[in-house]
Design goal:
By secondary structure, this protein is mainly alpha-helical. It has helices spanning 3-72, 84-104, 110-121. The protein has one domain (13-121). The chain contains 3 helices and no strands. Helix 1 runs antiparallel to helix 2 (84-104) and helix 1 (3-72) crosses helix 3 (110-121). It is rod-shaped, with a radius of gyration of 33 Å. The termini are far apart. It comes from Caulobacter segnis.
Length: 126
């Protein structure tokens, strides 16, 4: 068998292999684009969920702050260590700080309920 006849038998096979490789490359490219879209959607979903969780915690903290301000409104402090304009000014800051710490420590269970309802409103599952 001559070298020319050997080469001529492999040329059609190389052409078929090249076509198969091109088809496979297109399939891989399409799959990569699909995975990229899915990953992008997952990142957007995770970002939206994180924002909703943060908003729910902020709402719980605000609710607790208002509740604590109402609780401390009737509390009178003894004269040597309290009272006066300074206490009135900083009492709201104190209740805000306390409410943030309570929420950070787990809160009163309001944030998960709010988060669940916000997820429903956005059409997301828990």
């Amino acid at each position: 068998m001559s070298a020319l006849s050997t080469i001529s038998t492999f040329v059609p096979q190389v052409g078929a292999a090249t076509a198969a490789i091109k088809t496979a490359a297109k399939a891989v490219k399409s799959a990569a684009a699909s995975v990229e879209d899915t990953a992008h959607d997952a990142v957007q979903d995770a970002t939206k969920r994180a924002k909703i969780a943060e908003t729910a915690k902020t709402f719980e903290s605000s609710f607790l702050s208002v509740m604590m301000q109402q609780m401390f409104e009737g509390v009178k402090t003894s004269e040597p260590f309290g009272g006066g304009n300074g206490e009135e000014m900083f009492k709201s800051m104190l209740t805000d700080a306390m409410s943030k710490q309570v929420t950070k420590a787990g809160g009163i269970g309001l944030a998960p309920t709010i988060q669940r309802e916000m997820l429903k409103m956005q059409g997301l599952k828990e």
